Amino acid sequence: MSNKHLFLPSGFIRTPLQNGLGRYIPQLQRITLKFCKNHGGSRGVRDFIETDLMEFAKTNPGTVVYLKPRRHRYPCMVAEYLNGEREYLSCHEFSRAEIQKWLSYMCTRSGIPVMRFRKYNHTDYPSIQGVWNPFTHQAPEINVAQFPHEILSKPVDNGPTATDQLIEIFKKTQIKDPVKPEH
Predict the structure, then answer these.
(1) Helix and strand tally (H, E) in the chain?
(2) pLDDT in tens, 60-69
């Protein structure tokens, strides 16, 4: 078993700016592709630039892409995120497909450094009742039941559906407020 996790910083799960409530904001601000025009280790980066870079730029309009040719150096990617974090990735002898996968990975990341979690659940207001999960209030017979089960597999009839209730409310408002004709 590896012990690499011991050297990672530890912390809790954090979400940037409640991202996803309302609309999603991509966290990748800019990506810099550094490569050599002649070196063989940069072939995958050059192939990506020639064939797929324009498509990447069209699908990610919020990300600025910089190309930086350097002589006799290994290729690399530098990603900069909205929270100020920078991620460096050496792309020596990567194929075009690997470059695409790593760019996709960097575009979907939040920029928060990789860390080991102290707890899987964290809240500022802990509950004295314990952690809720979807199986908290389930019947214990489900644990040993053989499915399909005659009683447990019956559909539950809880009265009218939400759609039926909306139709009834709409019909009631139509009767109370008739449309006034315009003069």
Answers:
(1) 4, 6
(2) 999 999 999 9
Domains of the chain, residue spans: 24-116
Nearest-10 Cα torsion for 128, 131, 133, 135: -60
Single-letter residue type at 74: Y
pTM: 0.59
Q: Provide the CATH number for the domain formed by 24-116 in this structure.
A: 3.40.30.10
Give the span between the Cα atoms of 10 and 115, in whole angstroms: 5
Distance of alpha carbon 27 from alpha carbon 80, whole angstroms: 9
Q: Give the helix, strand, coil percentages of the chain, each rounded to 5.
A: 30, 15, 50
DSSP H or E stretch at residue 97: helix 96-108
